[in-house]
Amino acid sequence: MTASAGWTIHSIQPILRSLLALALAALALAPLLSANVYVQTLGVSACLFATMAMAFNLVYGYTGLLCFAQVAFLGIGGYTAAILVTRLGWSFWVAAPVGGLLAAIAGLVVAFSSLRLSRHSFGIATLAAALLCTIVARDWVSLTRGSMGIPGLPAPEIHLGSLDIVINNPYRFYGLSLIFAVGAIAFLHRIIHSRIGRIFVSIRENEPLAISQGIDPLRYKLLSVGLSAFVTGLCGALMVFNLTIVDPSILDFYYTETMLIMVVIGGPGHFWSVLVSSLVFSILPELLRFSTDLRLVLYGLLLIAAMLVFPKGIAGLLEKRGTDFWHKRLAAGRGQVS
Amino acid sequence: MDAEFALQLLVNGLTIGLIYALVASGLSLVFGILNIVNFAHGEFYMLGAMLAYFVAGTLGMSYWVTVVVVVLAAGAIGALLYDILLQRFEGSNVERGVLATLGLSMVLQNGAIFLFSTTPRLTRTEYSFKIWEFAGVTLPLTRLFAAVLSVIAFALTWWALQATQTGRAIRGVSQNREAALMVGIDPKRVSRIAVAAGIAFAGLAGAALAPVYSVHPTMGFAFVFKAFAIVIIGGLGNFQGAALAALLVGMVESFVGALASLVIADAITFATMLLVLLMRPEGLFGRGVRL
After folding, report:
1. CA nearest A290 in B: which residue?
2. What is the C-alpha to C-alpha distance for residues B46 and B55, in angstroms, rounded to an integer?
3. Cβ-defined contacts of B262-265 (< 8 Å, 24+)
4. What pTM, to 2 d.p., does this model score?
5. A60 chain-B contacts, CB cut-off 8 A
6. Do B100 and A304 touch (CB under 8 A)?
7. CA nearest A249: which of A127, A133, A155, A119?
8. Per DSSP, what are the bridge partners of residue B137?
9. Do B225 and A128 touch (CB under 8 A)?
């Protein structure tokens, strides 16, 4: 903060909080007030990325499990919803949660098989699961139509009494995504700040200690992966119905890298800073607009720099500033007494 | 299927398996010594192949000169990699090492795409399009040399690990770092040598396969996934296990790829990995001697 003493993250936290809330509300409303389709489309992607990042934050930031299968959950959710709607004629509103459930089941299978060994094998197994999903999407042509994808996904419809809404334009889809994102993120917030969330953190911080308190870490790790996979699967369903097509590009490693950057730079295990960084990283690249290859080079450099200099992200840096400030304060106080 | 065809498939599987073994054991070597899974390992394989393409194709050097140049360059890059990046993550938590090497992989892969585009390139050497025939089995010379190079690299490494002071020091550090330090081994020096060797293996694999397959920036990505699967199947940190698993995967790829399709072979490899994790988490070949 500035040179004037006392201006730390802690002393201005209430102001910061309300500013943040205002900014978030303004940001959320902007696409609704704007007639610009581009802004609305960007809004949809920001909503979905923010939710994905928060779901990844739950499993990596809070529970300490570096899960590379998030993109697989996204793809499973998207493909399941698309196939159920186009082949079996299911309603989107049923197909999407089923997609989420299937993603959660896949997550549980992969996590159960690899978590018993080590954190290394969890990383590798989740990565392999993501690749296996790519193989299925690309090469199981009779199910997924291969790289042609499944085009022409119908717009979700709402029939409530006399109310008929077809969500067939970016404006309405933004509304849907916003409601979903706020709901999903609020749900994750509830989980994180509940007893379950505190158990997740205790497992991340000190697993043997958690065990000594009678906690079965495997069950809670599975719960964390399952919840995260479910939310990510829902994001996938929304994403493909927004694009009206699902193809293997939904399993691109690019999504994994973007989620990673959002959470790692924001500060794994922090709520609001990851939310902000997920919005920054979904909007900023659009504004700067340079080649994807260079963007990923930059992300890679950021990732290395973060691991070298601030492994706990921006939030970790700010928090450290805050504790340093209080340490100094306390030291100064003690000085006066003696 | 007649015997000749089967023999051909066997030889093909053996050659590709040997190259997989090279990459997987490099990965295993780095993991054993630093406890870091090097997610950028495939990128060094890619860089090796790229360098081979330029040395052999653009500069017109001979096959063997190219191999030597690439191996030396990869070894130097490996030592640099250790000094600049990896040594900072020794003893820190698992995720930091993984994410840092993942970041490195993103930089190298996308940087290569930006500089060279994703166009596949064919490396031509004096042995391209030449074959070796023996008992009805035909083998392109480039494949044969790839296999031979791999065997030589293994033999040299085996000898070095068993018979030289440095090799024994590497084994010591990977078994118990503190104990190694106590008996006067400098873990930093040993780690640098091990990482250099691991990256040199990846570079050698790249140089050996450059004339066999096409060279492009994303080649390392798919390849290293297979190396990961192999390392898990063989047992994490188990040098010989990784080599055996690699031969197995090469065979599966050759036979299933010929009789069904390559995609099914890939799927089998990854499914096997998940199964091994479920049934025998210590790896198919147990812990054995840890390097």
Report:
1. B114
2. 14
3. B263/A135, B263/A139
4. 0.84
5. 95
6. yes
7. A133
8. B134
9. yes
